[in-house]
Amino acid sequence: MIIFDLYEYYARRTNLKIDQIRNDDTKEFKDIQIIFNNEYNQLLETENQMFNEDSKLQEEIKYWRPKIDSLLKTTRIK
What we know:
The chain is an all-alpha fold. The protein has helices spanning 2-21, 29-50, 57-74. Helix 1 (2-21) runs antiparallel to helix 2 and helix 1 (2-21) runs parallel beside helix 3 (57-74). The longest helix has 22 residues, at 29-50. The two termini are 22 Å apart.
């Protein structure tokens, strides 16, 4: 399902960014909140682009499916 994959990509991306600062003693919880909020806002923007009222869902899926698959590959868990 395309929506699940979209959320999965942003979850992975958020986790990767948090992992980058996890052991940095100069970072605080608010830094994690900023990362989360930024990623969540980008997720909502992408979701709104995918499912805007003017578009036809099947055409949007054909457009977005390859893009999301490519994004998922960039955050593949090893």
